[in-house]
Every structure is written in C-alpha cells, then in structure tokens.
Specification:
The complex is a heterodimer of chains A (230) and B (613).
Chain A lengths: L1 E8 L8 H14 L16 E3 L8 E10 L6 H9 L6 E9 L6 H4 L2 E7 L8 H10 L4 E4 L7 E4 L4 E8 L2 E7 L8 H11 L11 E10 L2 E3 L4 H4 L2
Parallel strand pairs in A: 3-10
Antiparallel strand pairs in A: 1-3, 1-4, 2-3, 5-9, 5-10, 6-7, 8-9, 10-11
Chain B lengths: L3 H4 L29 E7 L3 H4 L3 H12 L3 E7 L3 H10 L17 E5 L6 H10 L15 E5 L15 E3 L7 H13 L4 H8 L5 E2 L4 E5 L5 E6 L8 E2 L27 E4 L1 E2 L9 H5 L4 E2 L2 H15 L3 E5 L9 H12 L5 E3 L7 H10 L7 E6 L3 H6 L6 H13 L4 E8 L6 H22 L4 E8 L16 H14 L5 E5 L2 H12 L5 H9 L13 H10 L4 H5 L13 E2 L4 H12 L7 H4 L7 H4 L9
Parallel strand pairs in B: 1-2, 1-3, 3-4, 4-5, 9-19, 10-13, 13-14, 15-16, 16-17, 17-18
Antiparallel strand pairs in B: 5-6, 7-8, 11-12
The chains are: A alpha+beta (230), B alpha/beta (613).
Chain lengths: 230, 613
C-alpha cells in the first residue's frame, strides 16, 4: 500500500539536507512503529520516496513523500503517529492512500511555487517590474552545472506566473522536474540582470510554497483524484 | 544574549550548517533560570566526531537528569564558522539554547585525542575566556577536563582549572555540587580549587610545580602545599549495571561517524597488547549483565528509531556470554530489521561465526587487526595471533558472503626489522589470494598501516618513537609492494604522528607551544586538510624546545611527565612487560588462563567485584 503525504519543512530544520531528511523520516516511522515495507537485499531500508529535493537552507510549506506500508492503517492515524515522532520543524499536513501504480512524485510533480523575500538597493515598482519581466519573449540566463559546462537557457517558457503579494514578497509559479526545471536562484539572477535596483538574495530568503501537478493550465495537489487516477 | 538567533540566517554561508543547529530528536532543552547550575559540555572536534563519542552522551543525559542542573553542548566550529563568528563579533554558543559559552557556570571539555588541544584553546578564546587557569577567577566559568587522554594531559594541563581522572558517572554530580557549595560560601577560585583537589580523582594542575633537568626531562613534580595529594588515583565505576546509562539518546540529523544505537557491554580489556593504552588504562574488566543489555536495547531502539545496534567495548568478542547475548538480541530484533554490529573482531573463526549471526540483517565490512607482520613481532607486542588463524578467519568471512575486509597494521614498533614489513606484504597477498579462491567475486581489501606512538601507561612508555626518515622509508616500501586491484592502502602522515607523539608524551612546557601554534592558525590538527607541520616546528623553536626531548625515549630511572597520575596498572608490571617484549615472551590473558599476571589493578580497586563468576 502506498501512502502519499504532504509535509512542511520549516525554519528549525531548513539546513538539513535531502538525504538527512529521508533518514529523519525513516527513524520517525520506526519510532512510530508504522508497518513500513522494507526493500530486499543486503541493506534493507524503509521504502520511502521524496519529491524534488528542497535546496539546503530553504523552507518548504508543501512538500511530498510516498511511503510504502505492508499493512493498512487509517491515513489520519498514520499522520498522528508520525507527527508525534518528528522533530520540531517537520510536520505532516495530510496524507492519502494512492493506487500502487500511481505515477511517482518525481514523475508527476511538474510545477513549483516560490516566494521570494526581495532586497532592493533603490526604489522599485514591483508590479511594473514583474509585468515587464513576464512580457519578455526570451529570458536567457547561464546555467552553471556541477562538473559540466555552463549552458545558455531560456527561462521564459518555464515561467507560468509572477505576482507581488507585498512590496518585498514576490511569488513565482515555475516549471520544475525533468520536463524543464527552473532554479529559483536563476529567476533572481534574471531579475537583477534586468533591474539594477534588485539585489541578489540568499537561499534563506526563498520559500517553496507549493508543489503541484499542472494539467490544462490548472494546478492540482499530487494526491488529487484527478492526478492519481490518471 | 542568544547568539544562535543572530547567526542562524547566515549559516547558509558555511559548510555543513546542520552541525550548528541542534534540535535533534531527544534533545533536552531546559528553561534557563538563575537557580540552575549551568554546564556546557564542549567537544573539541566537529559535531560528527563529537556526537559519535559515548562519554559526552552519557554525561549529557546524566547531568540533565538532575532537576537543578541544565546541561547543553557545543562542538568545535569548523574554520568557516569560526571566521563568520569572528567577523560578526559573536562568541561560541551552545546548541540547545544558543547562549554564550561564557554564560555557563562550568565548561567541561572531552580530552579524547591529543591532536585536539588547539581546538580547546580556540573554543576558550571564542568564548572570550582567558586560556590559562592562572588568568581566570570567579567571574569565569570553571574549566574542567576529562576523557581518555587524561593519562597524560600535561601539555594541556595549564589551560584547565581541574581535570577528572577516570570514569565520571558516579562522581560528576558530587563534583558539581561541591563546586557550587564552595562558590555559594563566597570562596575565591583559588581556594575552591585547593579544596576541590581533595576530592577523589580530581587533579588541579595549578596545585603542583614541576622542575626540569638541564638535559630536558622532568626532574621533579611536587604539590605546592602539604595538604595536596602527591598522586591522583583514577576513579572507576564498580558495577556497570548499577551505573547510569542513557536510553533516550540524541538522534542527529547529520550522518555522523557512528550513526547508530550504542550499548557499552563491557569496560576494560585484559588481553594485554603492549602498545595499547586503552587496554592498560581502562582495567579492570567489568561487564554489563545480559539482562540489563537486553533491557537497554529495547528502550534505546524504541526511543531513537535507529536500525542498527552496536555492542561496544574494547573487545566485544571477549564478553563472557557473547554467543547467547547475540542470539537473544537477533531473535528479538531481526524481525524489526534491526542489525547488530560488533566494532572489532578477534582473529578466529568463532568471531566470524558470530559476525555472521549478527549481520543477518545487514552486511557491512569486517575488520581484523593482526597489527604486525610476523609471529615474532606479534610476540613482542603480545598479540598472540597465528598467521593461520587470520587466514582461516578470512576464508570463513569470504565464504559467508563478505567481500570487504579491513586489515590493521602498525609500523615503527620496537624491534621491527625489514622481515616484519615483508610479513605485512605477504599477509596481504595471501588474503588477496584467499579472496580470489573462495569467493569468486571481486573482493576489497583495505589495509590500514598506522605509525606506532609509544603511549603513556603502556609497557612501551619509555621507548623512542621511530624517526621520520625511517617511517617514510617503510611507508614507501609498503606503497610499492601493496597494490593492485581491490587493495587499498592507507597510512598516517609522519609529520602528524610526530606532533601526536609530542602531545601524548610531553609535559607542561608544551602549553605555550600549543598556544603559539594556535596563534599562527593551528586548528583541527588531526585533520589532514588543515594540519600544518611548520606551525608546530616554529612554535617549538620559539619556545626553545626540541621534538627529541619528548619522543626520543625516557630513561626508566627518571621521572616520567605523567608519574603523578595513578591509572591503576603498576609501574613494575609495565616495566616487566617491556622486558618480556624485548625477549619476545607472551603474557597470557588472565581472564582466560585464570592466572594473575600481577598488573596491580585488583589491589587498587579491591571493591570492584572482578570476574565474579
């Protein structure tokens, strides 16, 4: 049985890495005595899959995980038991059973929403800047890749929406995952290349607010029925 | 001031920021009130090393069990965080509440490794606390030390107000309360220290004076006042079952060095390997009962969620009822996919069978330590392992499905010759061959060759360390002869061994040397990427001292720098063992042969119920 859960990774634990987060979950499942399924082989471990890694230092309001169980317990009970055994700063919001053959998180989730806490070095007009930004036909940036050559990339088709929720709080809805991935730092870089009064911001000024499946221009949570039964 | 809240949003700038955030599962965060006795446990190395250390965890949970004590932790910040703290003008802080280290009443340092002394003074400096005990008064936290290298803490002794010699579980609460009683009586720091030096196991370095021979060594070591004890006797826990052991262990987020549940099944070892300081200084052997171990295992695994349980001790295979213990543990826990691990194995088939039993759930590597390349040299070091035993054990291991084997050797041992090195090479070749024959798979052999450092309180405490040129030649011989697919050789940097020898064998004159090296930037000297030998050469030179004074051997007629410490094993026994080493004579293990070897430990601790069965 596969259970898909939405969780928050908040400020107290924002510096722990993706792998450390997985270990933290596995230990909390053990403390919670969840009937978790284990992999076979020399080094058996709890079958757990997370979505797109959240960068170290970034808070996530709506992240997802898939956990395989070998016995069914009510989803709400699983949520309670796990939450009672999670360190401060990590919390499951809700969980649902999904079909065994549902697409994996990495394959299904294709859209991320980021909140940027902006920094200005002079006066700015947020709406105007964002309008100009999204009105461009091309937003070329250089992508730096580990152990690989830099490459030029057009961000524009991968950006879906941009809005200023407050003067210094900007929200971007962007493509994520294997079908086209936007790194939030690249959006900041592209913005500051366009506007001189925008400063670059560190990772801790960015929040991943949501992870979605985008279908026919609409955003769905990855455990929505329309998604898992697709 | 809460330092952590000022630095938290800048931690993205440093490597491994999760070292500095605390908040692990089972962390104890008490309310910070004026009534509480506040203790900061400092570990002078990185988080991942310190959190793998059992001693600091025992003390953390034990101290916090007391209602009126608040105990928090701090680890040595890596240089990137140190620089950030200094740039921001912020001091060393605790992980739990983020308070300044200087806000605590007592700061306890773990003396676990000789190469961490610069980190100790760096942490004091980052806490804005004067480095030397003589420059501190009642306005500063009391700086105490304890741990495995207290057998000779002299090079670092002038930095400490007091050092506890031995196992602290049964004594620490008393020590803390005594300090507060004297403090509340309004006594000054000096008088408090003088009074505290009367407590068992308490060594107050400032109560002693040392004179030196012109030729270099220590001449005399005497108390400054008649009421101060001449020697400090190590304290021990008599009964492990009665002593405190935590169950709600901290569970780090970070993948630390030993990331698993740990039960110390026994303390002490009577095998009597002549190079091994732990084997001599942790006697007598005391075992935790099987019932208590099972009870602890149940609770620890439940409270931590760990999937691996390690049975720790200096020689776990020697635990009296190890087969039954392992069987009961695996019966009880393998259903929960919990694997049991043994840290070190004796070289025999019994050990491999045992390892097979415990590693039914997960298979990791197997480690064997023949230590020397020939039977002769193994007799010198009293490691009575036959070559056949090793090959049988290795064959059994490959047959049971292991394909990774680690072999530990030492070079620079007393009386070592070319033949002994050739012996290492041929043993590795033979193991390689056995791997090919038995497993048919590709096997992996890791050969670790460390340089021998004659440690205090061992039969080799008087001997000279081998010089660098000679060690380098031996290492290059091994590099040229141990190679090929599936074999990996590792060794110690000779320069680093020299400094380790200096710190392990030195006296108080080295404190200013440590300070000078630190001033020029020495930090994390046990880490290859940061160790800088030139800083140490320079600091020694500026202090008009030479390496040779400390590592060229000490005369048995003269006073050793650590002679005022009584670790429990007789000097006469050690000297006799040294002579037996030179005549290649073995000394049997008194536990198995049933004959007392006269080490003297039973006389020092008659109250310990030794080998009660």
């Amino acid at each position: 049985m596969l259970i898909r859960a939405e969780f928050k990774k908040l400020k107290p634990v924002r510096y722990i890495s993706h792998l450390e987060l997985m270990d933290t979950f596995r230990r909390s499942f053990r403390r919670a005595r969840l009937p978790a399924a284990y992999s076979q082989g020399y080094n058996p471990h709890i079958k757990l899959a997370l979505g797109q890694p959240l960068p170290v230092g970034m808070v996530g309001f709506s992240e997802y995980l898939d956990l395989e169980l070998c016995a069914q317990i009510p989803a709400s009970e699983a949520v309670n038991r796990i939450n009672n055994n999670l360190p401060q700063g990590i919390k499951i919001s809700e969980a649902h059973y999904i079909p065994d053959d549902a697409k994996s998180l990495q394959a299904a989730v294709n859209t991320a929403v980021y909140l940027f806490v902006m920094k200005f070095s002079g006066p700015v007009q947020p709406e105007q800047i964002l309008q100009n930004f999204m009105a461009r036909n091309k937003i070329e940036i250089t992508r730096h890749r580990r152990n690989k050559k830099d490459r030029r990339l057009d961000l524009r088709p991968l950006l879906y929406e941009a809005e200023a929720e407050a003067e210094k709080l900007w929200r971007f809805t962007v493509s994520t995952g294997s079908s086209g991935n936007v790194r939030p730092s690249e959006v900041v870089r592209a913005l500051s290349e366009q506007e001189e009064n925008l400063e670059s911001i560190p990772v801790v000024n960015i929040i991943r607010e949501g992870m979605f499946v985008r279908k026919d221009e609409k955003l769905y949570k990855p455990f929505s029925e329309i998604i898992v039964n697709d | 001031m809460i330092v952590s809240s000022k630095i938290e949003n800048k931690l993205y700038k440093v490597e491994k920021p999760e070292r500095y955030i605390g908040r692990e599962w089972n962390q104890i965060k008490k309310e910070w009130t004026t009534q509480k006795k506040k203790i900061l446990l400092c570990f002078p190395d990185t988080y991942e090393i310190g959190m793998s250390h059992l001693g600091i965890k025992i003390l953390y949970h034990l101290l916090n069990k007391q209602e009126d004590i608040l105990c928090e932790r701090a680890f040595a910040p890596w240089i990137d965080l140190e620089n950030l703290l200094r740039e921001e003008g912020l001091p060393l802080f605790s992980l739990e509440s983020g308070h300044r280290a200087g806000d605590f009443d007592i700061i306890g340092f773990t003396l676990q490794y000789e190469m961490s002394y610069t980190n100790i003074i760096n942490m004091l400096d980052l806490a804005n606390i004067p480095l030397y005990t003589e420059d501190r008064d009642g306005s500063h936290p009391l700086i105490i030390g304890g741990g495995s290298t207290v057998y000779n803490s002299e090079p670092a002794a002038p930095f400490f107000d007091l050092i506890f010699i031995g196992e602290a579980e049964d004594f620490i609460i008393d020590l803390v309360n005594t300090y507060f009683n004297f403090k509340n009586q309004g006594l000054n720091r000096k008088d408090i220290l003088k009074k505290m030096s009367k407590l068992p196991g308490v060594y107050v370095p400032s109560m002693y004076e040392v004179s030196y021979h012109k030729s270099g060594g220590v001449k005399e070591f005497n108390p400054k006042f008649p009421e101060i004890k001449k020697t400090i006797k190590r304290q021990i826990v008599n009964d492990l079952d009665q002593s405190f052991y935590p169950t709600g262990f901290l569970v780090p987020f970070m993948d630390i060095v030993h990331n698993r549940a740990v039960i110390e099944v026994a303390r002490g070892c009577t095998r009597g390997c002549r190079f091994c300081a732990a084997g001599m200084t942790y006697r007598p052997v005391r075992e935790r009962s099987k019932e208590r171990i099972l009870e602890l295992a149940e609770k620890i695994l439940e409270k931590t969620g760990y999937s691996e349980l390690s049975l720790n001790s200096l020689s776990t295979v020697d635990y009296s009822d190890i087969e039954t213990l392992v069987k009961e543990l695996t019966d009880r826990f393998s259903g929960q996919k919990i694997s049991i691990s043994l840290p070190s194995l004796r070289i025999d088939e019994f050990s491999v069978r045992l390892a097979e039993e415990v590693q039914k759930v997960r298979k990791s590597g197997l480690t064997f330590a023949p230590e020397a390349g020939t039977e002769r040299l193994r007799r010198v070091i009293n490691k009575g392992v036959g070559e056949k035993d090793l090959y049988q054990a290795v064959r059994a291991a490959f047959n049971s499905g292991w394909d990774r084997i680690k072999l530990y050797f030492m070079i620079g041992l007393p009386t070592e010759t070319r033949k002994d090195l050739e012996g290492i090479v041929s043993m590795v070749d033979r193991v390689k061959k056995i791997g090919r024959q038995t497993s048919g798979r590709r096997t992996n052999i890791e050969v670790s060759v460390s340089s021998f450092i004659p440690k205090p309180f061992t039969p080799f405490q008087w001997v000279a360390m081998e010089n660098r040129e000679s060690i380098e030649k031996k290492q290059s011989y091994l590099r040229n002869n141990i190679k090929g697919r599936g074999v990996h050789l590792s060794w110690n940097e000779p320069d680093m061994s020299l400094v380790e020898g200096l710190m392990a064998r030195g006296d108080r004159r080295l404190a200013p040397v440590i300070e000078k090296a630190w001033q020029k930037g020495a930090r994390f000297d046990g880490w290859n990427e940061l160790f800088d030998f030139s800083l140490w050469e320079d600091a020694l030179h500026k202090s008009n001292l030479k390496f040779s004074t400390f590592i060229s051997g000490y005369s048995p007629e003269k006073c050793l720098p650590w002679a005022h410490i009584n670790m429990g094993v007789d000097r006469e026994f050690l000297y006799n063992e040294y002579k037996k080493a030179l005549s290649e004579e073995l000394t049997p293990d008194c536990r198995h042969e049933g004959r007392c070897t006269g080490c003297g430990i039973n006389l020092l601790f008659p109250e310990a119920d030794l080998y009660a069965d």
